[in-house]
Amino acid sequence: MIWEKIEGQPSAVEYLRRSLARGRTAHAYLFVGPEGVGKSLCARLFAQALSCRRQDGDGCGSCPSCRAFAQSAHPDFRSFSPRGVRGGIVIDQIREIDRLAWLAPQMDGWKAIVIDRAETMNDEAANAFLKTLEEPPPRTVFLLLTSRPDGIVATVRSRCQTVRFHPWAFSLMEPFLRERAGIGREEAWALHCATGGLPGAALRTAEEKFTATRALVLRALAAGRFGSARELMAEASAWLDDLEEKHRRRAAALEKQRPPGLDPQGIKDEEEKEEAYLAAEKRADFDRLLLIVLSWFRDLELLGAGGQRELVVNQDQLAALESRAGGLRPGAAAAALARVETSRRAVRLGGAGRFTYQLTLENLFLQLGFWGPG
Ligand SMILES: [Zn+2]
Questions:
Q1: Disulfide-capable partner of 55 in 60, 95, 131, 258 (CB 3.0 to 4.6 Å)?
Q2: How many domains in the chain?
Q3: Which residues are near ligand 1, the ion (C-beta closer than 5 Å)?
């Protein structure tokens, strides 16, 4: 029943269901897939199914354990995220994980411990965690989530069962967005491309006037170097304001979801977790704008090289793209692509703030030759 909540990941669901049905739960699983593909949701539902008292291999939704999960208050389900904005999973957290792992479950089921972005464990933490994995505590399952499995030391990785999560195909995304948010085919396609096939990110993006922003950026790109940089920046700036407002609302919502009765250290830990979570979300949101720019130059490069028109991502801009591609000097699209990628990398590594984003955009537009007469 609860497995139906995970859409678009049939092989992961099938694998996990089967291991539960056979009563062969591994001590540790490594969920591998891009950020926003649904790994955390699946980890929680898997833990719920594991501890449900009524339905083998599923969650009934009404037993005390399932109800605790529904209220995000299950005492035997704990989740750990990297500390601070640029920090990682640290040794103190591993010690806490080890301590929890050896306690008896409070609800007579299993203990499930999630380690989000497990690739951020430093060597010290990984070595300590390895010891826990080598002598696995009874009725405890570790769920490691990562988008970069190569960042996890091989000795830890080899002790986990790997479960892969994939971005969605457009054939899944289109009906999903239509049913959830009444989104039409053309916009669904734009959202699909902008998020790389990640449904959660696509839904969130749809809420933030993404279509209008996309239309605007593409119009400016189509106008080329003599388009108005000032107009473009003004619009981009309004979009950044909207984003900021959205993130403020998210921060307030996260604060409300904190478990009650925390001590000062507990509050600090939660704050750090929320901060890291928000920073990741901000980066992903901003990256979507850069992905629009990227998709434009990819399309130009494709057409410039005589590629098939059907492969153009921005189908609604085909005419403008073809006319631009005609007058493009060789290598220009590739050079622009490299510049956009450099900006994306800078955002990934740098701070997640309004100022950084504004500056990144201005620099990028300047480099792309947009600082023409405004
Ligand atoms: Zn249940």
A1: 60
A2: 2
A3: 52, 54, 60, 63, 66
> Which residues have CB under 8 Å from 129's CB, separation 6+?
94, 97, 98, 121, 156
The mean-pLDDT minimum among 40-54, 176-190, 303-317, 358-372 falls in: 358-372
Verify that 16 and 116 share a domain, yes or no.
yes
Q: What's the CA-to-centroid distance between 54 and ligand 1, angstroms?
A: 5
Does residue 196 sit within a domain? no
Between 58 and 98, the more confident residue is 98
Asked if residue 53 lies in contact with residue 185, where contact means CB atoms within 8 angstroms, the answer is: no
Q: Are 138 and 107 in contact (CB under 8 A)?
A: no
Percent helix, strand, coil in the chain (nearest 5)?
65, 5, 30
Cα-to-centroid distance, 52 and ligand 1 (Å) = 4
> Do 223 and 130 share a structural domain?
no
Domain of 114, in residue numbers: 2-164
Based on the domain organization, do 322 and 212 belong to the same domain? yes
For residues 188 and 183, give the distance between their C-alpha atoms in angstroms, rounded to a whole number: 6
Give the pLDDT confidence score for residue 225 in this predicted structure: 57
For ligand 1, the distance from its centroid to the CA atom of residue 48, given in whole angstroms, is: 7
Q: Distance (Å, rounded) from C-alpha 122 to C-alpha 298?
A: 37
Question: 64 CA distance to ligand 1 centroid (A)?
Answer: 7
What band does 325 get if pLDDT is binned at 50, 70 and 90? Answer: confident
Instruction: Tell which of 164, 190, 224 closes a domain.
Output: 164
State the distance from the centre of ligand 1 to the C-alpha of 75, rounded, in angstroms.
15
| Same domain, yes or no: 9 and 153 | yes
Say whether both 258 and 340 belong to one domain: yes
Position 182 in a domain: no
Q: What is the pTM of this model?
A: 0.67
Average pLDDT of the residues in 128-154: 94
Q: Are residues 138 and 32 in the same domain?
A: yes
Residue 345, token pair as written in the block: 């990398």
269 within a domain of the structure (yes/no): yes
pLDDT of residue 227: 58
Range name among 8-22, 90-104, 207-221, 264-278 with the lowest pLDDT average: 207-221
